[in-house]
Specification:
Length: about 400
Amino acid sequence: MATLAPSAAKTGTVDPLDVSRAELYRDDTWHAPFAEIRAKGGIHYTADSDYGPYWSVASYKPLVEVESLPDLYSSEAAGITIADFKEGVDVKMPMFIAMDRPKHTGQRRTVAPAFTPSEMTRMTQNIRDRTADILDTLPIGERFDWVDTVSIELTTQMLAILFDFPWEDRRKLTFWSDWAGDIELVKNDELRQQRLMHMFECGAYFKNLWDGKIGKEPTPDLISMMIHSDAMAEMDQMEFIGNLILLIVGGNDTTRNSMTAFAYGLDQFPDERAKLEADPSLIHNTVQEIIRWQTPLSHMRRTATQDTDLQGHAIKAGDKVALWYVSANRDESVFEDADMIRVDRPNARRHLAFGHGIHRCVGARLAELQISLLLEEMAKRRLRINVAGEPERVAACFVHGYRSLPVELSRY
């Protein structure tokens, strides 16, 4: 349970529309406060929270407006999460998603070749084969944890390939990702320090991989791409670690939580699951719909660089602006019956789960490919996932996901 901010504890009041509270996501009760914010125009100011004062942008249209003005709403000024940097406890680790132009452009351009259509074609058979291997080991009619056995394993394997990371150590990537993405740690200085220690461990491990590739011919992995680029070859230690964390969290949490949402979500909507089972041509649209419905990262943060007006709200220079993708993807003015999964939803691709504008997820194509191939291989085997108990959800307002999900498989 999140603790109250000092001012909230003093007054004994909590803003019911403070959507940063961890329990809302742990208990899956975030829908109502966001629906209220959207009903009031989609923008709300919270004066007191565990993360200090902030603006919530919770509807589709104003969120797109903010994302479309990256010079006015900065990613670099104060980071990309609602949590603030704490002097004396935190160490700044720059990453290109938390940079503004022009530096953002050069570093993003460096890693983008790993996610081109030609690279997706090159990797497809490998992803399909690994997915098939895992599915063929799953028990039928026996309970197991879908998150650990399928979602984490598939995404961690993919990360190991992208980084040319030692296969036997690949679960380290999951461990580092979980520590890096846990926004709740900022409320405890001891845990903040533990996270810092793990991030340095991550950096030291990757520094050895980096050193082993210096002077070698280019290879199609992310470390080699960084070494052979003007924009990233001379990164200092903190920037190196920061970009590694970005790529690990981006490649791990988003895809694994969408894969779990596929298992959990279709079980909640059996009529939609039946449509998909009857018509596998709906798989690619279903992937977009699952990503919309889940929204694996709840928010990103921007900081206003000057006084401005956002749809009638006076935003001051320095104000913290939280972009709640998890809510914009449930905006009924854009997505009819937005709380439902519709495998044939005509505008599913309009979702904002990958962001919008210059910071749109660079690895979106790869995430879509991995999830699509999982659904295709499930359909080939006529496998159905039956949820066998309530999921354990991540208790945090940044990564929107699952710790575990008990399931049993059957054939249809």
